[in-house]
């Protein structure tokens, strides 16, 4: 049985809507000091797989903000982390 406590996060959309999401993992690349969060709304795709989202966390302001990843090299590094994590769970 998995006794890990689920961590949730409230995300406020640009339209003011609030989504409660479940954090899968958060990590930081030490060389760039960039922080990321992987989270899910527990939605399933057409194949029954749970959809996950990845965002860059910006803590420079009073409230942390989440941003998408536009840089291809940065996205490839994040995907490598996700692949390693998925292999650990197999």
Describe the structure.
- The chain is built from one helix and five strands; from the N terminus they run E-E-E-E-E-H.
- It has a five-stranded antiparallel sheet, with no helix packed on it.
- Strand 1 (7-12) and strand 2 (18-29) form a beta hairpin.
- It is of the alpha+beta class and 90 residues long.
Largest sheet: 5 strands, antiparallel
Percent helix range: 10-25%
Relative strand content: over 45%
Multimeric state: single chain
What does the radius of gyration come to?
A: 14 Å
Mean pLDDT across all amino acids: 90
Which spans of ≥5 residues are poorly predicted at pLDDT below 50? Answer: none
Number of strands: 5
Q: Which structural category do the helix and sheet elements fall into?
A: alpha+beta
| Termini separation | 16 Å
Tally the helices: 1
Strand line-up in the sheet with most strands? 1-2-3-4-5
What's this model, at a glance?
The protein is α+β, with helices and mostly antiparallel strands and 90 residues long.
